[in-house]
What does this fold into?
Amino acid sequence: MEGCITMTMNELDRFEIINKSFEKRIKVAEAAEILGLSIRQTHRWSKRLKLEGPEGLISKKRGALGNHSLPKQLKQEALKLIEAKYHDFGPTLAHEYLTKARRTNDIRQHNSRFDDRKRFLDSQEKETTPETPYES
It folds into this structure.
């Protein structure tokens, strides 16, 4: 055995079904139906299995930072400040005080993303008009 790979149960199920399709034990359309994917996507998974082996079916996003994560240095500074000044605060109040205490582009930018989404959702609610009741 060369190495050990870690797969989730979904990835393991995907591997078993794609492998059956690859070995022509089931049709690609059947594999696609079982996995809830299109036939084209099933062909892509099969090609990945052929080129990369089982590792090709593992999510490439695993271990990557999320899109909304803050830089490590900023997180460390915030934790130090919470420990020093706001150790008995809850998360919401600590966030409010941190935002007031340290006005950085990162925090404002992070909050502005939330504000943009909130403004978008608010505008969507205003655009939808309630239906008029059916008059008989």
